[in-house]
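Consider the following input, taken from an annotated entry for uridine/cytidine kinase (Cyclocybe aegerita).
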Amino acid sequence: MPDEFVKITESLVHETQKIDGQEKPLPAIQPKKNTVLVSHGRPPWYSEDGQRTSDAFVIGVAGGSGSGKTHVAREIIRKLGSIPTVIILSQDSFYKFHNEEELALAHANMLDFDHPDALDMPIFAACLSDLKACKQSNIPVYSFEQHQRLPETKYLYGATIIIAEGIMALVDSALRELYDLKVYVQCDSDLMLARRIRRDVKERGRDVSGILDQYLRYVKPSYDNFVRPTASYADIIVPGSNNSVAIDLICTHIREKLEERSNKFRQKIAIPHRYLPSKSGASTPESRVEDLDLTILPQTPQVEGIFTILRDKTTGRQDFVFFIDRLATLLVEHALQHLPYAPKAVTTPVAEQSHGKKMDAQHICGVTILRSGGALERGFRRVINDVPVGSLLIQSDSKSGEALALQVNLPRYVKLRHLADATFVFLMDAQIGTAAAAFMAIRILLDHGVREDRIIFITFLVARAGGVSVLRRAFPGVKIVCGGVDDEMQEGWLEGYKGEGNPEGRGRKVWVMKPGMGQIGDRYYL
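Applying the prediction step yields:
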């Protein structure tokens, strides 16, 4: 995935910068302030034991209205360059719900939006705390045109860096405790007023007379009484203009902190007996299959025949797709045994009672790890055809080989935490080799509140000598259903790439499952 790739969740304004004499696109920024920016993806935030080892890095940016807080946030992102996932969280989303009397005052420019009491600080702190702890959050949506909090919310998840900005960002002590870096943007009052007029006319449909009246009545007194005093809490004070030196210092500090928090362990879990001690404390060879606690599809002559066809490199794509779908169907059917069932009595067509079972799961959904996990989706829908299916895009970093989360598209049952606790998730990937993608996918589901014992991982192949033993140790409650187990994981180098630690240019280190079935995603889709 190229570093210049930027995904932004809503429509954005695109700008350019000159790099080596050529115009290149900058990360796009939008007037709507709550955004998710992704360039090279989110690296692991957990260790080989599956536990979270680092929080998101949180920056609080405060200052007067029109001081340039949003500009400073944009410049931080711009100068960080190839950034991991960044969330810009605006205080403006957390204005309180207004009754009819308050709405009438708001439309008459008679309601004070610049007092700390206008904001729902407890919800602001709770949402920011969740995001910092690598959990999902559903942020309120506020309409300045309607002067009202809307019924819908905005789902946010997956930040390595969070920038929380607003005039009151440093007022509340609970918020200040969450920041790793506190920034105050200091600007001349006349310049702030000019910027506010231009913004409110252009973006919020206000007239100049109403803007000036509101400024003199509420904004200026609030700035003097509440906002300006919070500069004493800041770690760094940034000028409202000509602030490139200060922003460079901030970016240097952020890079250092992210490097301190980085986790690089794919090599350890890829061939664990070389790097990680066993539970007894000694480095051991590969685990036995029975020690891995896998649910393996019964190796009937039919299954052995399907695997023979799939392993054969001469098998054409049409036959490969047909037998992959057939094997996926068998695997999903076999995985249904891990769902709960309750007794049920029915009446037969001859008026007799028959006692059986019914599925007793409140919510069920599927999640595929793209793109090879998509090869299981057709079989999944053949067996369970009326449940939502989401996806996770997890790829390897081109330099380090570590897993990167590039996109999270989860079903509603998982996005909402009160539903996630009661949801069974079928997680699907073509194989578990190094287990790096499986680690990240399971960690994402746990972050959302899905219970470990309600995750059912379905895969065609597992490498016994690979990362599955570490995966089982980290997440013992997860059920793993596989079609077969191969013995070997072999180290190699991806030719034509000069990666880290390879001055000779042998390429990036990769691990290949043997005998395996090759690149299942490529064979299925190409």
